[in-house]
Design brief:
Blueprint (H helix, E strand, L loop, with lengths): L12 H8 L24 H16 L4 H7 L4 E3 L5 H8 L7 E4 L5 H17 L4 E5 L13 H11 L3 E6 L9 E6 L7
Parallel strand pairs: 2-3
Antiparallel strand pairs: 1-4, 3-5, 4-5
Helix pairs in contact: 5-6
Length: about 190
Amino acid sequence: MPKRPILPEEPDDAALLREALKDVAPLPDPGRVLHPPARRDPVAAQTRRDEQQVLQESLSGEMSIEAMLEAGEALAYLREGIDRQVLRKLRRAHWVVQDEIDLHGLRVVEARELLVAFLNEALRSGRRCVRIVHGKGLRSAERTPVLKKKVAGWLRQRDEVLAYCQAPPPDGGSGALLVLLKARRATG
């Protein structure tokens, strides 16, 4: 067997660096104070996404929620005595959705029981804005939403419900509602 030539050993990178920097002297201290970098304000990522979504919708030519309300296709409700700006803010996702429940596919009796329990817990926990998914009715016998009108009626009966409107398309569209609840009163 032929012998392989012996290659010189590769020098260690750290050793090479030390050798290259052996004559380097540190710079004299200029007496400056180094301040830590300034803290940046937190980025409101959800607000940025919401603004981008509004821009996309305005450029897409799709029907706006306001236009759909005028056409009678979208559910919306505002309790008497509440400023219309509240409904406008709710449509524009001014409040962050803090919880949600999915009722679609349930029977009416089951849906009502779950909705009541969900709203009671949301109020007890101090949640202001919730999403209720009622479905679009695509699997019903007549292919029409069964729970949509039921949920709307149930919500109108609750004094704690200030307003509701159809959710934006990415959040369920005509198959879901955004609901604004009264603020919990401070105790103590």
